[in-house]
Amino acid sequence: MTADLSRGSAGNGRSAATERTRRISSLLFLRLRDLDAFEDIRDDVLDEFRADDTCQALLLKDPREALLELHMPLVEHCARRFRNRGEPYEDLVQVGTIGLIKSVDRFDTDRGVEFSTYATPTIIGEIKRYFRDKGWAIRVPRRLQELRMQISATTAELTQSLGRSPTARELSEVIGCSVEEIVEGLESSNAYSTLSLDATDDDSDRGAGQSMLDAMGVDDEALEHVEIRESVKPLLENLPPREKKILLLRFFKNMTQSQIAEEIGVSQMHVSRLLGRTLEQLRESLESEA
Amino acid sequence: MPETSSPVSGGTATAGDPTEVELRLPADGAYASVLRTLTAGLAARLDFTMDDIEDLRIAVSEAAAMVLDEADEGAVLDCRFRLTPGELMLTISTDSQTPTPPDYESFGWQVLATLAAEAAIDTAPGSYAVRLTVRSSLES
Questions:
Q1: 3-class DSSP state of A233
Q2: Are B35 and B78 in contact (CB under 8 A)?
Q3: What are the CA-CA distances from residue A184 to residues A115, A141, A181, B2 (Å)?
Q4: A183, B44: Cβ pair inside 8 Å?
Q5: In angstroms, what separates the C-alpha of B1 from chain A's closest C-alpha?
Q6: Distance (Å) from the C-alpha of residue B26 to the closest C-alpha of chain A?
Q7: How far apart, in whole angstroms, are the C-alpha atoms of residue A96 and residue B54?
Q8: Which of B1, B37, B52 sits opposite A179 (nearest CB)?
Q9: Phi, psi values for residue A15, rounded to 5°
Q10: Each residue's pLDDT tens digit, A120-132
Q11: Which residues of B touch A179 (CB under 8 A)?
Q12: pLDDT for position A204
């Protein structure tokens, strides 16, 4: 196998980058499984990649970790194939990575196949299993699940061929069911995923990272005032008439202290003192209540 | 069904002969989905496209929410559909002792006005109604 590995790039039509990834991958597997054999060719290998620091660094890292790092684009590629199915892309990458880890641990280098050939079905299998295990947010009969998939596939096809969104009748004609069943199927599609309030919106045209919770209303500011007003009300009732009148003139009629003084026939200083004392009393009663 | 040319199966709706459908529900948000489902079902028979139906669902939700806000305790939501080929008109009304004047600045109204071809709020002493008309995009 060492002889096979040291053959270098064959260049039989594949892109140079793919070829290099495969070469590094097989060298890393050699290092992972048979360290002595790798040490024998170590200098030749480092010489082979002398022009590429990142590759050299990768080859000298922990081989298992390096293999995972090297093949992450494969996981991302697989995960992308399952986008728009209601699960966050990042989650798919995460379960796909579990598939990659399993592949690295189980890959048999003596079989003579490329690692990616072995890993791809394992990664996709892991993602598919995730979909199967996770299931629908609300349990929907299998008949409707299948109908929903048919509707969504046929909608895409017809939208393409008609150049517009299809009608329920057009869908029913292609699928071969009744319009009622189409409506029923549409209804069930709302049950596939429930929306998290914290989930961010993928549509970037409304500002990325906006979650449903962000878009939700806040308590009306005036609401808090209602509570305060309600608790102040009985306290106001108990105030002596003159103090009540001063508060009223000051805060509801928005009069100045001098105007109030003139209105009730006392000095402005006196109004100021009365106002201060009344407010202080109110504040104390409120606080002692709370 | 595919060979039936009439938009409403079993019905005989033509331009001059609108089909009337009426639904009465408790004025309670829990029943809003029944209204949405019925609306989608009717629109599907009027040759609305999937996109139209999706828009219609949202418009109906907003209209229903506006009316529910005004409904008296224990009131009934009266939903009347007028169906003509390619067009659905829906009036949702309820008893409301003290209807608030229409708020054309509200988010719900903005959504409704955007999605529906025509929309209106009718308030009268003792009642509150929202009317909306939606047309199939195939008609225009």
A1: helix
A2: no
A3: 45, 12, 5, 17
A4: yes
A5: 7
A6: 21
A7: 33
A8: B1
A9: -70, 150
A10: 999 999 998 888 7
A11: 1, 9, 44-45
A12: 44
